[in-house]
What does this fold into?
Amino acid sequence: MIIKVFQCILAGFLTLSLSSCGADNGSVKEMDTMSADQNITLEVLNPKVEISTEFEQMVKEYEKENPNVKMNILTFGGRGKLPCRIESKICSK
It folds into this structure.
């Protein structure tokens, strides 16, 4: 009985706390217009050499639909070498 009461109180508290986490629509619209004007360059990791052609086609389609986004594809082959290559890429920045 005490456990059920505690569960109901906890559920009510969580519901109230999560319902107060709304966003102000004005600030969201403001951020959307700011990001629409900026050029963005992304580096995307492709760990599978087998799908590199399809992945490049997918990126080209995305760049057509989003002209302010440029994607650089980093294709790394070999599972064992992947963590070392990611680490060296991060350290080179």
Summary: The first helix runs from residue 2 to 19. Residues 39 and 67 are 8 Å apart (CA to CA).
